[in-house]
Amino acid sequence: MKTTPSYTVIYSDDEIVVLNKKSGLLVAADRYDAEAPRLDLLAEKEFGSLFAVHRIDKDTSGIVIYAKTPEAHRNISIQFTERTVKKTYHCLVNGHPAWDNFTVDLPLLPDGDDRHRTVINKKFGKPSVTYLEVVGHCGPYSWIKAFPKTGRTHQIRAHLQSTGFPIVCDPLYSGNQKPVRLSDIKRKWNGDVYEERPLLNRLALHAYSIEIAHPKTGEQIIFTAPYPKDMDAVRNQLAKIFKIDPLA
C-alpha cells in the first residue's frame, strides 16, 4: 500500500481507485467551504482525473471509491442508486444501548437547521434506514457496527443521536464532545493529567468496508480500510481493558 499524509491506497486498476482517507478531508467540493482540503484533488495528482461515486463525511475516516472512467462512474453510480452496495461503518458511542441489534427507520432532511445538520423530519425528510449492531460495552462507551441501507448526509450520526447514543467526539450531534483519554478508562493510571494527550479527539466514525460489483468484470469485491492510528489506539486500549474488540 502506498501511504501519504492524507490517504492510503488500498486498490487501484484501470477502472477504479480505492482509498483510505484520514479524518478532516472532504471527498469532493463543498458549497460551504470552497477552500477546505479535498481528497479528490490530492488523489488526482497521483491518478489523474477522478469521478466521485459516493461520499463520506469530512470528519469520518475510512474507505472511499473513485471511478477513473465515465463508464465506471456510471456503473458504480447505478449500484449506489439501486442500493446494492454494502457498506459497514465502525463507531464508538457514548453510553450502553440495551439492545444488541436495532433498525433505525426515520426520514432525514439534510441541512435541516441553522447548524446545517441533518434532522429527522417525517413530513419533508427522505426515507432513511440504518441497521445497528452492538459489538460490546467498554467503560462509558460502546462499539457499534452500522450498516446504512440508504446514503443520506450524516445519516449514521443523526440516526445514532436519535437512539440516545451519539458518536464520541461528534461536534454536531453529541452534547458530549469530551475526548477519549486513557485516564478516564484505566483504573490504575499513573500519568500526569496536565500532560496527558487524548487518545482520540475527533469524530469516532470509520468507514470500514464496502462491497461492490467491479464495473468491468462484474465480480463482487469487498474492500476494507484499516483503522487510522488514533482510532486504533483507542481500540487497542479498550480491548486490553475490557476484552472487547470490533476487529476480533
UniProtKB/TrEMBL annotation:
GO terms for molecular function: catalytic activity, acting on RNA; pseudouridine synthase activity; RNA binding. Keywords: Isomerase. It catalyses: a uridine in RNA = a pseudouridine in RNA. It is an enzyme of class 5 (isomerase). The active site is at D57. Residues 16-162 form the Pseudouridine synthase RsuA/RluA-like domain. GO terms for biological process: enzyme-directed rRNA pseudouridine synthesis. It comes from the Bacteria. Its EC number is 5.4.99.-. CDD domains: PseudoU_synth_RluA_like (cd02869). Responsible for synthesis of pseudouridine from uracil. Belongs to the pseudouridine synthase RluA family. NCBIfam families: rluA_subfam. This is Pseudouridine synthase. It comes from Treponema succinifaciens (strain ATCC 33096 / DSM 2489 / 6091).
